[in-house]
């Protein structure tokens, strides 16, 4: 699968705002509207690029979860893996990563590795990911917003 932006021809819509989400550890997030729910089939993942980060968004049926798209083992694309329960199995070497907390479930000897997770909101079937500004830096966020021309693109 090619790494594409599921947000459509306009790309993701970027908005900087303070978060009231209790899962957020930093009060300052870049909330990015990336796509609509019907663009990600149930039990599958899709990649999206936000700044220089590639994030995988997964449809678990009852909710959407987002993680970095690289397996901690050898960088395999998690969005192309098999979703099972709340986990994804990396397509390269079958490492199993929990999508809710980013921990490695298999192999049992890889427990010190983990994958960054991101808060996800769904409003009116639009998926929005909260990316900490510390993860991409303010300059990257501004460059991404101006490069995509994203004022309200996915609204």
List keywords for this structure.
disordered C terminus, 4-stranded antiparallel sheet, Rieske Iron-sulfur Protein, 12 strands, globular, single chain, 155 residues, mainly beta, 37% strand
Query: Could you describe the largest sheet, including whether it forms a barrel?
Result: 4 strands, antiparallel
Number of domains: 1
β content, as a range?
35-45%
Rg, alpha carbons: 15 Å
Give an overview of the whole structure.
With 155 residues, the protein is mainly β. A hairpin with a 5-residue loop joins strand 8 (96-98) and strand 9 (104-106). It is built from 2 helices and 12 strands. It has one domain: Rieske [2Fe-2S] iron-sulphur domain (Rieske Iron-sulfur Protein, 3-layer Sandwich), CATH 2.102.10. The protein has a 4-stranded antiparallel β-sheet with strand order 1-2-12-11.
Could you give the topology of this structure?
Blueprint: E1 13-18, E2 28-36, E3 45-50, E4 53-59, E5 64-68, E6 82-84, E7 87-89, E8 96-98, E9 104-106, E10 117-118, E11 120-123, E12 126-132, H1 133-136, H2 138-148
Antiparallel strand pairs: 1-2, 2-12, 3-4, 4-5, 5-10, 6-7, 7-8, 8-9, 11-12
């Amino acid at each position: 699968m090619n790494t594409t932006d599921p947000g459509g021809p306009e790309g993701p819509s970027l908005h900087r705002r303070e978060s009231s989400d209790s899962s957020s550890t930093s009060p300052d997030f870049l909330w990015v509207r990336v796509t609509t729910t019907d663009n990600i089939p149930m039990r599958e993942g899709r990649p999206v690029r936000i700044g220089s980060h590639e994030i995988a968004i997964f449809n678990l049926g009852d909710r959407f979860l987002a993680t970095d798209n690289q397996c901690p083992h050898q960088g395999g694309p998690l969005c192309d893996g098999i979703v099972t329960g709340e986990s994804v199995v990396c397509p390269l070497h079958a490492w199993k990563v929990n999508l809710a907390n980013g921990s490695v479930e298999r192999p049992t000897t890889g427990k010190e590795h983990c994958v960054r997770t991101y808060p996800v909101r769904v409003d009116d079937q639009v998926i929005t990911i909260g990316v900490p500004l510390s993860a991409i830096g303010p300059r990257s966020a501004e460059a991404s917003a101006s490069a995509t021309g994203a004022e309200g693109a996915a609204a």
